[in-house]
């Protein structure tokens, strides 16, 4: 899966960002406060996004292409995934976890 992003060089550093847009119904459930989602590129559009000669119209067209929610699987994972106090470099960190308070989402 590829996400649309931008990068730049600032001195010796490379910085980047992942672009987002208004959330689809599934992502609105996941990111329910900001209702945003990353721009997911279909495989056939990945190389288009990487072209050096994209103009504003090309970028807008690629950003507005829809990636169907039914092609994705969503589930809750460990809250430790982003904890600086926990070593999250383990295979099971992205395994499905059930949280009673979230039983209405997925």
Could you please describe the fold and organization of this structure?
The chain is of the alpha+beta class. Strand 2 (5-10) and strand 3 (13-18) form a beta hairpin. The protein has helices at 25-30, 46-49, 56-64; strands spanning 2-3, 5-10, 13-18, 20-22, 36-38, 40-41. It is globular. The strands form three sheets. It has a two-stranded antiparallel ribbon. It has a two-stranded antiparallel ribbon with strand order 2-3. It has a two-stranded antiparallel sheet with strand order 4-5. Helices cover 18% and strands 21% of the residues. The protein starts with a strand and ends in a 42-residue tail after the last helix. It folds into two domains: 2-71, no CATH class; 75-106, no CATH class.
List the helices and strands and how they pair.
Layout: E1 2-3, E2 5-10, E3 13-18, E4 20-22, H1 25-30, E5 36-38, E6 40-41, H2 46-49, H3 56-64
Antiparallel strand pairs: 1-6, 2-3, 4-5
User: What sort of overall outline do the alpha carbons produce when their principal axes are compared?
Assistant: globular
* Helix fraction bin: 10-25%
Major sheet characteristics? 2 strands, antiparallel
> Count of DSSP helices?
3
Strand order of the largest sheet: 1-6
Helix/strand order, N-terminal first: EEEEHEEHH
Residue share in β-strands: 15-25%
| Spans where pLDDT lies below 50 across 5 or more residues | none
Radius of gyration: 17 Å
Short description:
This protein is α+β, with helices and mostly antiparallel strands. The protein contains three helices and six strands. The strands form three sheets. It has a two-stranded antiparallel ribbon. Strands 2-3 form a two-stranded antiparallel ribbon.
